[in-house]
Amino acid sequence: xxxxTLYIIFYLYYVLIPVLYxxxxxxxxxxxxxxxxxxxxxxxxxxxxxxxxxxENMYSGSETDLKRFFPEGSFSIDIKSRFLHSIGKSSxxxxxxxxxxxxxxxxxxxxxxxxxxxxxxxGIKNSGLKALVFGGGTNVTxxxxxxxxxxxxxxxxxxxxxxxxxxxxxxxxxxxxxxELEKTLxxxxxxxxxxxxxxxxxxxxxxxxxxENGQESNQYGGIENAIISVRAITSQGExxxxxxxxxxxxxxxxxxxxxxxxKYGLIVEATLKTFRQPAKRFFKSYFFKSFNDGIEAIRTxxxxxxxxxxxxxxxxxxxISSGGDSSLKRLFxxxxxxxxxxxxxxxxxxxxxxxxxxxISGGISAGSFAARQWFRERYTRPAMANILWKxxxxxxxxxxxxxxxxxxxxxxxxxxxxxSIEKERGFKGIIMAHLxxxxxxxxCIYFTFIIRSENAMEDLSAVRESIMxxxxxxxxxxxxxxxxxxxxxxxxxxxxxRMQSLLDxxxxxxxxxx
Length: 514
Ligand SMILES: Cc1cc2nc3c(=O)[nH]c(=O)nc-3n(C[C@H](O)[C@H](O)[C@H](O)COP(=O)(O)OP(=O)(O)OC[C@H]3O[C@@H](n4cnc5c(N)ncnc54)[C@H](O)[C@@H]3O)c2cc1C
Hints:
This protein is α+β, with helices and mostly antiparallel strands. The protein is 37% helix and 20% strand. It folds into four domains: 103 residues, Uridine Diphospho-n-acetylenolpyruvylglucosamine Reductase, domain 2 (2-Layer Sandwich), CATH 3.30.43; 114 residues, Uridine Diphospho-n-acetylenolpyruvylglucosamine Reductase, domain 3 (2-Layer Sandwich); 98 residues, Alpha-Beta Plaits; 119 residues, 2-Layer Sandwich (GMP Synthetase, Chain A, domain 3), CATH 3.30.300. The protein contains 20 helices and 18 strands. α1 packs parallel to α15 and α17 packs antiparallel against α18.
């Protein structure tokens, strides 16, 4: 009898209620924010409205002369757009742009279209400026960090946005945003299979430029799996790959442009694989006694579901606490306790076209609610970061990938490093992690940390330095998918930097190297 009652309660909580609530993606992150405030043991008011005070006088000057180099309607010297084309979305940039009204910015912004690309390239060369390629501007690695007086113009790719399907491929303009591409593909029964959390704001050119990895990578792979060819323009002219399933004729252009971060030229368009849209998605959540038990369960899986996301104990606890207090939740937590798991580590999974196994080694099945909710909100998490920023917190993330045998120690040591820096420097902070992007040999581990400090810039920099050094010490990647940008360059081996620089096009990279 108690078994049946429990079953009915879980059915209501995890199946019926979510279905009744529908697929509404609007979301208020106040509950999560409250949990974090409690962890920091402070109550805070809004201290920043999110606007930056740009001192226009700092930036006015000779840039108006530049207009003559570019076709009518393709060039802007508006200070706000120059500013927005000079920063990405990394926390150091957000911090700096908040306090430093005189950050270096580009001299102007050009908006090429297919029919004026060559004249715009000529205009840039004739102007004597260097080029910064700007897709959606969502990179978090300081790709756009300018030095004072670098003399740079931004190429905004948003007008390079054609989409054309052929066979099982799509040829797409580099400035096309995720939703436009996916909507067109869906109308033909296809999907691009590539869904970074920044999907709504990032572009195909940016995905290639950073060697990005989407949330459904377990099934579709990263952008490197989808790409068939690129067409790019460099200061020496055009370069492309043949649109063929495979080619062995030396080094393909696409390999060069994957992760090129705008240094080798402008990707104009790319041909990508398309995949059949899934007929049905299945959702499931599990709880493990510990993060390490969850890691072991994933490592030994025969096949990874489309999405798997294993939260560590802190991330799990925040997720559970932000759900408020209710008798249903208490019952559920008691159930987990009774099964010997406690709050433990939560894993959510989404699988295209096939059901999850009833049992996963060491995991307690916990219905579909958490997985459905995560999926509904999968692009909305940045809203949580915005609340934190506005209340004076500094949220940040660093991610890496590592082999399975290293993962538990990498997780533990990174958290320890964070807390020793916290103690040493006397600020308050929290850190949590999750695994996402599973590979046969290992996984991506993604750390989120939040600090509250009077010396946020210095403290953040110390934390980042310590975590990166730990990644290197533990034999992990510099980054699984965010890229190198300017922040990680110093950790790269000089020989590798030299090798990667062999293809640098001075028109596009000169300002980065000077
Ligand atoms: C909230 C948030 C969530 C994120 N989630 C993910 C995630 O799940 N997975 C992931 O991998 N990343 C993620 N990122 C990082 C970022 O969104 C990705 O790196 C994305 O691929 C960047 O695309 P973009 O169009 O914004 O590129 P931009 O930021 O505009 O550019 C990135 C780099 O690519 C170059 N570039 C852009 N377009 C071109 C082009 N046409 N030709 C040549 N070079 C070009 C730029 O010069 C720059 O060096 C996230 C970022 C944020 C802020």
